[in-house]
Structures are given as structure tokens and as C-alpha cells.
Automatic annotation (TrEMBL):
Protein name as annotated: Pherophorin domain-containing protein
Transmembrane segments: none
Xref: InterPro entries: Pherophorin (IPR024616)
Annotated segments matching region Disordered: 1-198
Biased composition (Pro residues): 1-126, 149-185
Pfam families according to UniProt: DUF3707
Location of the Pherophorin domain: 206-356
């Protein structure tokens, strides 16, 4: 079919005239410029400080030719194992708190780092002497050794001393009483002439020391009784034995006391004459003490460390011997027909020191 004719296009409208513009206002006249103060004169420039000439840099070192490194072979990559799939957490109902996250896996333990072995010690150089080494001088020949002296010939054994006569067994102790027994004559004790007493006017302060001795103001716990005497035929030494008995005193002081000490007032010449002192058959040691009073000396024989309680002192035996070359017999030792002695205890904490005296007749024994 033939094409249909196109309709004619409409005529465009005529152009609009331009709108008149309002006249622009007249601009204000320009303001005169404000006078500026004169700027100060700048200081003259400082001359540049002379710099030392920089040293000439060293010439660059030529690079050392390095051989190119050989190409590394490509390292084979191991296929990574697939990651394990975490289990799916179950859905929690609404309103409940979420469970705590699981603990991370524990890292594997590393092997302990062993210390490196110590480096070997360098060998030590020998120390040189500080002085020159001199050759050794030849030694002198040693003198011959003297022969040792011969041992002395053994002495012939001395003959044994003659046996002493057996001492008679002591009689039974006397019964307890408050007054001394009547004297009994004993033929064993020799009847010696009376010795002169001490100088006239000399007051006897025995027993010496700070102890209670004036009775009947104090109790009298013990009394020493004569038992027997014997003389050794070879040496002429006399041996004497006594026995202790106690009283049932009722005074407040010095009654129930131990027997620790027995003192004899002896002549000065018999110092050291007593030996072989035995108390209940046990060995004891005797001591001596010399006192000076008003210009006169007094010697006291002390039998110490007896260590007998009030009950143990009953029937206790006391024996000793006299050296005949020092002191002839008991009368010589006491210096008169009556021996003055004191029996008591040693000083102790919280108790009185007692030493009541006793006058013992010698010539009637």
C-alpha cells in the first residue's frame, strides 16, 4: 500500500520580547586609604659565618661481584587437611541464657630445652718459678745413729707389808638417851701423861664460823661415841673407831638436820696426821683449817662430805688412823684429856647452819 501522508507540523509561537531590567543603584564613592605608620628600618643582614670546607668524600667502593644465587627448587606443598566441621549447636528455647563457650584446646607440650654442653677448658700453662733454678748441692753423709740405751734392769719386788691385825667388831650401839653414858675404862688406849694446856687467858672460840653452837638454846641432834682402838705392830700407828647416835631433841632449831660435818679441835703439831678415813666403810678425805684468834693459832680437823640424812646417821661408823711419827695418839691430837668436837650440817639455802659442841673425855676410854 502506498504510504500515508504525514500531517503538517504546527507553526512555532513567536519569541517573547526581553523584559526590561531595573536600573542598578549608583555605587558609593571609594573610601580614602588610612595612613599606615612608617615601618621600622630592618637591621642590616649578618654576614654569613664562614663554614669549614667539608672533607672530600671518599670515592665509592666498587661493588664486589657476587655470583647470583642458584634458583631454589619449588617446595612441594602438602595438601592441607580439611578443617573439621564443628557440630551444630541445638537451638535453645527463648528465655534461656546461652551455654558457655567450650574451652580452647590445650597447646601441645614443648620438649625441654637442654643446656648446651660446656666448652672445653683450655689447657693450663705450667707456672714458671720466680727465681732461677739452681743445681742441687750434694748432700752430706748422715752421722751414724747412736744405739738406744738398754732398759734398766727390773728392781726386785719389795716384800709385802705385814698384815694388820684384824680390828675387833664394834659392840652394839648404846640406847637412845638424853644424857651421856658413864665413862667406861678401855685397856686398848694407852694412859699418856697430861699435856700442858693452852696459854692462860686465851679464850677458845671453837667452833669457828657463823653457825649455831650454843645449846640448850638449840637442839642437839647427834652424839659421837667411842667404840675401839687398835695399834699396828709394824708402824705403831693408832686407829680409832666411833659410832654416831642421835637424840630425840624437841627444840625449834637444829633437831632434824643431816650429818655433813664433824670438827675436832687439835694441836698444831698434828696437822696432816689423819689418814685412812672411812665412813660406813667408804673412803672419805679429811681437811684442815688453821684459825688465828687474839694472836694464837687454832687448828681444826674437818671430816667433810659425810652426806648422811637424819635417819641414816643413826649407828653410822667413823674410823680413822693417826701417823705415829706426826701425832702419837688421840690424846696428843686433842691436846688434853678431853676432845672438843662439833657435829652439824653444812650451810644451805633456807635452813640454819648448826654446829653444837660436844666434850669427849679421852683418858677414861
Amino acid at each position: 500500500m502506498p504510504p500515508s501522508p504525514k500531517p503538517p507540523s504546527p507553526t512555532p509561537p513567536p519569541p517573547m520580547p526581553p523584559s526590561p531590567k531595573p536600573p542598578s543603584p549608583t555605587p558609593p564613592p571609594p573610601m580614602p586609604p588610612s595612613p599606615k605608620p612608617p615601618s621600622p628600618t630592618p637591621p642590616p643582614p649578618m654576614p654569613p659565618s664562614p663554614k669549614p670546607p667539608s672533607p672530600t668524600p671518599p670515592p665509592p667502593m666498587p661493588p664486589s661481584p657476587k655470583p647470583p644465587p642458584p634458583p631454589r627448587p619449588p617446595s612441594p606443598r602438602l595438601p592441607s587437611p580439611p578443617l573439621p566441621r564443628l557440630p551444630r549447636l541445638p537451638r535453645l528455647p527463648p528465655g534461656l541464657p546461652p551455654p558457655p563457650p567450650p574451652h580452647p584446646p590445650r597447646p601441645p607440650r614443648l620438649p625441654p630445652v637442654l643446656p648446651s654442653p660446656p666448652s672445653p677448658r683450655p689447657p693450663r700453662l705450667p707456672r714458671m718459678p720466680q727465681w732461677p733454678i739452681l743445681p742441687l748441692a750434694p748432700g752430706y753423709p748422715r752421722a751414724p745413729r747412736r744405739p738406744s740405751p738398754r732398759p734398766p734392769s727390773p728392781r726386785p719386788p719389795s716384800p709385802p707389808p705385814p698384815p694388820r691385825p684384824p680390828m675387833p667388831s664394834p659392840p652394839l650401839p648404846p640406847p637412845l638417851h638424853d644424857s651421856p653414858e658413864p665413862p667406861v675404862n678401855h685397856p686398848d688406849l694407852p694412859n699418856l701423861p697430861n699435856l700442858p694446856p693452852r696459854p692462860a687467858g686465851a679464850r677458845n672460840p671453837f667452833p669457828f664460823g657463823l653457825c649455831l653452837s650454843e645449846w640448850p638454846n638449840i637442839g642437839r641432834a647427834f652424839q659421837l661415841n667411842y667404840v675401839n682402838a687398835s695399834q699396828a705392830p709394824s708402824s705403831g700407828d693408832w686407829s680409832y673407831c666411833f659410832r654416831v647416835s642421835y637424840f630425840q631433841c624437841r627444840q625449834a632449831k637444829c633437831c632434824n638436820i643431816p650429818l655433813d660435818l664433824i670438827q675436832f679441835l687439835i694441836t698444831d703439831n698434828c696437822y696432816g696426821a689423819v689418814y685412812n678415813l672411812k665412813v660406813n666403810g667408804d673412803d672419805r678425805a679429811s681437811t684442815y683449817k688453821v684459825y688465828d684468834y687474839n694472836g694464837w693459832t687454832y687448828t681444826v680437823l674437818k671430816l667433810t662430805a659425810l652426806g648422811l640424812s637424819y635417819r641414816e646417821a643413826q649407828n653410822a661408823s667413823i674410823c680413822f688412823s693417826l701417823r705415829a711419827d706426826v701425832c702419837a695418839n688421840l690424846m696428843t691430837m686433842c691436846g688434853a684429856e678431853i676432845c672438843q668436837l662439833a657435829i652439824g650440817n653444812q650451810p644451805g639455802q633456807g635452813r640454819d647452819t648448826c654446829c653444837p659442841t660436844q666434850r669427849y673425855p679421852v683418858t677414861l676410854q
